[in-house]
């Protein structure tokens, strides 16, 4: 398929976005960029909005490409932000009152889940507890950033709005905002140029639609990594964060990450680095792995 691929320099395009007209290079600056596309997928846009702070903390900007016009994008953002609202209601009830009742150490608890992501709770209960005590444990699990015992009145925290009553409590999380620009490509010219076309999918009018493509662009404006998924398969944002961390490691040090690497795991020193140079570059030391070939190329260290 024609278009951008690994190692290519992205063109300095000038495009119309929901944030106004912008040029790629001006927008990227000296940082990193995630340039991504897909057909209509409210869940993915919502998840990317949720992870926006994680990307920003890594010096990464977001830019999304769509084949709709700007008006459609602005209307769609309303749906995404509405979908992002998460509501968790926990009510102490009798087990026979609702089929969705679960039991935590003998205490019946009813969970109502709404929104983009199911909130998971695991609360260890050694005895039947007052709902306020349960709320404290939920707070300890990170679901309630701030809260106070306010009886049946409404408490507002920086992360959740919380209502605690005599029968239970509810926590509703404000939806994540879509604060990154969305590029309009109604003529479908950019998806061709940027290698973001799904060859097997068409819209109702028979037009080509974007694949779920994602390019990670470095400060030198070159493609460092690409995901290319069909329109039918959703992407995992945790994996995007993981590979960003791996790319940052390899950009800063002469290392590569092994299979299933995650932050905090050891990395491999590049085979192009001699043992003498490795001792200078990695004063913290490294560990060589014995191989049947007796070649000393698997050397692990932490950076």
Automatic annotation (TrEMBL):
Known EC number: 1.11.1.24
Substrates-to-products reaction catalysed: a hydroperoxide + [thioredoxin]-dithiol = an alcohol + [thioredoxin]-disulfide + H2O
Assigned keywords, A-Z: Oxidoreductase
GO molecular function: thioredoxin-dependent peroxiredoxin activity
Secretion signal span: none
Record-annotated Thioredoxin domain positions: 4-249
Top-rank taxon: Eukaryota
Entry's Gene Ontology BP terms: cell redox homeostasis
One GO location term (cellular component): mitochondrion
Protein's name in the database: thioredoxin-dependent peroxiredoxin
